[in-house]
Design goal:
Elements: E1 3-7, E2 13-17, H1 22-32, E3 39-42, H2 48-59, E4 63-68, E5 71-75, E6 83-84, H3 86-91, H4 97-106, E7 108-112, H5 125-133, E8 137-141, E9 144-148, E10 156-158, H6 164-174, E11 180-184, H7 190-201, E12 205-207, E13 213-217, E14 225-228, H8 233-245, E15 249-253, H9 261-269, E16 273-276, E17 280-284, E18 293-295, H10 307-314, E19 320-324, H11 333-339, E20 344-348, E21 351-355, E22 364-366, H12 370-382, E23 386-390, H13 393-396, H14 402-408, E24 412-416, H15 419-429
Parallel strand pairs: 2-15, 3-14, 6-7, 10-11, 18-19, 22-23
Antiparallel strand pairs: 1-23, 1-24, 3-5, 4-5, 7-9, 8-9, 11-13, 12-13, 15-17, 16-17, 19-21, 20-21
Helix pairs in contact: 1-2, 1-4, 1-7, 4-6, 5-6, 6-7, 8-10, 8-12, 10-12, 11-12
Bound molecules: uridine-diphosphate-N-acetylglucosamine (UD1).
Uridine-diphosphate-N-acetylglucosamine binds near residues 126, 127, 164, 191 and 328.
Length: about 425
């Protein structure tokens, strides 16, 4: 099992290029199988989650050609199987986007039912409600979701909770349904808009993505397209909080500043200077940061996927901060790890009270999940001494060249996979 070993204390200074948005790419890759012609997708992040989904897609018979690390062509003409095994779902929940894509195109899909995960139980009732409303028979048998329809017919569907996954999945299923589908109370995240834009570039007729209501007029077929995935707002935000926590000065390049508004607002609130350019954002921190309160909410609110990164930063800010997690019930476990590095935290229900400390001290911690892992790396970079982050396989699911990018702005971090390597690193840096 690989680890990151980090020597903290360096200010992060410099420029970092942000890659394509993992969560947009997952929806886009699944949607790509709905065309009978070749579709080219660019600006893909080269991360494990994407590679697993591409395997699942070729596993059902679609042709997948990786032109380079960030570009792929997909042709769904020869899709011959409509079932996605638990192996894929276990590795990456978002394989369930193939449910909407296969049902929409072939009127049949069998996908293993995803379980909960480290950040909480994650129901998919809203996805299934949407498929049923469009006319599909949906059964759960032997751990699988089996969805079938003779025909799908557009409907007026009101989601009970705002869900990114349900919005994207039901939108895909509705793209080739007969007539008009109206989805209300939908998620407005940039990646929802990106998947809708991609489907439209293949000939779908979707209006309103990015607002509370999406209207989809069904079309009979989808055609070839070339599309570039939007930049990853969460990767960008992670480096922005890394700059804040390490008293750094980092410019994240190739971003859409509009997508980072909630993050920028919080960084300014705690005392960072933030400069916005057309496609870049610079964060400057003099280390004199103060507490604030934050509550995670659906977009344009503060993203739950950035909660651990702001939590780590607030643990170094003067004063008492309250972080409220309103999306996932089990997303504070990283704070127990952070407490081992000297953070002063108290968790009650879905709120954490964080009393800022002067500094963290390096310790051995576990990544727990993707964003928690990235946040603990930020903590390690800000800490005194050596931090070892175990289970970095989680981080590799969603960050491309994470350690290289951090090194390029002055972070002292290496990927290792033995106690001997850890000792070697410790000797080298001490
Ligand atoms: C997506 C993101 C994830 C992010 C999350 C919230 C991807 C691949 N993943 O996850 O990184 O943390 O959005 O921004 O894009 N819910 C239900 N019933 C449902 C669906 C969801 O009750 O059928 C609830 C969930 O338990 C959660 C909330 O709705 O409390 C939001 O979840 P959702 O937006 O669906 O998250 P994901 O799409 O799984």
């Amino acid at each position: 099992m690989e680890q990151y070993v980090i020597k903290g204390g360096n200010r992060l200074v410099g420029e970092v290029e942000i890659g394509g948005a993992k969560n947009a790419a997952l929806g886009i890759l699944a949607a790509a199988i709905m065309a009978d012609e070749t579709v080219l997708i660019d600006n893909l992040p080269d991360v494990n989650d994407i590679n697993v989904l591409l395997d699942a897609i070729s596993g059902i018979g679609a042709s997948v050609h990786r032109l380079d690390r960030h570009m792929v062509t997909i042709n769904g003409k020869n899709v011959s199987a409509y079932n996605i095994d638990y192996d894929y779902i276990k590795k990456i929940r978002a394989s369930y986007y193939l449910l909407g894509a296969l049902l929409g195109k072939y009127k049949r899909a069998e996908v293993a039912l995803p379980g909960g995960c480290n950040i909480g139980s994650r129901p998919i009732d809203q996805h299934l409600k949407g498929f049923r409303a469009l006319g599909a028979d949906v059964e759960i048998e032997h751990g699988k979701i089996i969805a079938e329809a003779d025909r799908l017919v557009g409907k007026h569907i009101y989601f009970d909770v705002v869900s990114v996954g349900a919005t994207i999945n039901v939108m895909m299923a509705a793209v080739m349904a007969e007539g008009m589908t109206i989805l209300e109370n939908v998620a407005k995240e940039p990646h929802v808009v990106d998947v809708a834009n991609f489907l439209n570039s293949m000939g779908a007729n979707i209006r309103g993505a990015g607002t509370d209501v999406i209207k989809i007029r069904g079309v009979q077929r989808l055609h070839t397209a070339e599309y570039a995935v939007i930049p990853d707002q969460i990767e960008a935000g992670t480096f922005m909080f890394a700059a804040a926590a390490t008293k750094g000065d980092v410019t994240v390049k190739n971003v859409i500043p509009k997508h980072l508004e909630a993050t920028i607002a919080k960084l300014e609130e705690i005392g960072c200077k933030v400069e916005e350019y057309d496609d870049a954002v610079r964060v400057i921190s003099d280390g004199n940061l103060s507490s604030t309160h934050v509550k995670t909410l659906p977009y344009p609110g503060f993203p739950t996927d950035m909660q651990p990164q702001i939590g780590v930063t607030l643990a170094l800010c003067k004063g008492t901060s309250v972080v409220t997690e309103s999306i996932f019930e089990n997303r504070f476990k990283y704070l127990d790890e952070l407490a081992r590095m000297g953070a002063n935290v108290k968790i009650e229900g879905n709120s954490a009270t964080i009393q800022g400390v002067e500094r963290f001290s390096g310790a051995r911690v576990s990544a727990l999940d993707l964003r928690a892992g990235a946040a603990l790396c930020i903590a390690g970079l800000a800490a005194e001494g050596i931090t070892i982050v175990d289970d970095i396989v989680y981080i590799q699911r969603g960050y491309e060249h994470f350690e290289e990018k951090l090194r390029s702005i002055g972070g002292i971090i290496e990927k290792v996979n033995s106690e001997k390597d850890i000792r070697k690193f410790t000797l080298k840096v001490s």
